[in-house]
Amino acid sequence: MATAKLLLLMVLVAASSCDGSAWRGPLSRLRMLPTAQYVVEAAAERLKEDVSSAPLIHALHPLLGSAGDFSRRAGVPCDSWRLAVETYNKRDWTTVPASCEGYVGHYMLGGHYRRDSRVVVDEAVAYAETLNLGGNGKEVWVFDIDETSLSNLPYYANHGFGAQPYNATNFDEYVVNATAPALPEVLELYEKLLSLGTKVMFITGRHDTEKEATIKNLRSAGYHTWEKLVLKPSSLGSSVVPYKSGERQKLVDAGYRIVGNMGDQWSDLLGAPEGDRTFKVPDPMYYVG
Ligand SMILES: [Mg+2]
User: Fold this and answer.
1) What residue ranges do the domains of the chain occupy?
2) Among 100, 120, 178, 252, who pairs with 78 as Cys (CB 3.0-4.6 Å)?
3) Over 60: is that where the pLDDT of 40 sits?
């Protein structure tokens, strides 16, 4: 309880110290109120959570969420960097900026990542419910796997949340363990789609040599059935768009209608045929072109 009060006090002090220096004149007053209000509300929300029951996967304990001053640590606007990543304005980056490791960690482990995922999935569910399914079993929803259906956060939490250079050997060892949990919101969408009569397919950048581990992991995470699981032939190059769009074209040629397409990378979604609608779930930890 004492810790909770101390946290709230820290938040109030932080909120009151917002100087709005990025805005001048009347704008600074406009900015102050909602910012302070949001920070206090976010802290109150966290105080209500029973964090002690949450699985601890990293010592980095989320305090204020990514909306707090962590985003401006060392003067680096990590929140702006993340927005540019999500909107595909920032491309071809290899690692999270070192000064944003803490920001991305708090974003992923705090409530922000899950809230953002919730918004995406709520939109997808609302869209799916409007679908006029033909009842011929040919309507399919395509899911990516890593950071979409399955979350590799337990791995990335131990590798700088994307601030450390990607190590294929280490990551492949993790994949073989088949222990990645589902991203809960996406698993919820998966169940909803099945209940609506939509078939589900997975098209992943994982190599076909990892098929067994991937099937095992999907099942243990709660994905109990699917129409098709497509893994990337090891002989193919690294470019994702031609591979994934080519696999989607094969589905269309086989008479399927791709009603939805969801991934954490733009390369999961771009390239005809994209599907009737695309949905991007957040991922500030790595870029796959
Ligand atoms: Mg992915």
Assistant:
1) 1-19+28-54, 116-280
2) 100
3) no
Q: Which residue has the higher pLDDT, 12 or 267?
A: 267
Q: What top-level class would CATH report for the domain 116-280?
A: alpha beta
CA of 46 to the centre of ligand 1 (A): 29
Task: Measure 264 CA to ligand 1 centroid, in angstroms.
Answer: 5
Assess whether pLDDT exceeds 60 at residue 82: yes
**Interval between CA 238 and ligand 1 midpoint (Å):** 14
Ion ligand 1 residue ranges (Cβ < 5 Å)? 144, 146-147, 264
Distances in Å between the alpha carbon of 102 and those of 61, 71, 108, 166?
Answer: 10, 9, 10, 18
Q: Is the pTM of this model over 0.85?
A: no
Say how many Å lie between the CA of residue 42 and the centre of ligand 1.
29
CA of 128 to the centre of ligand 1 (A): 21
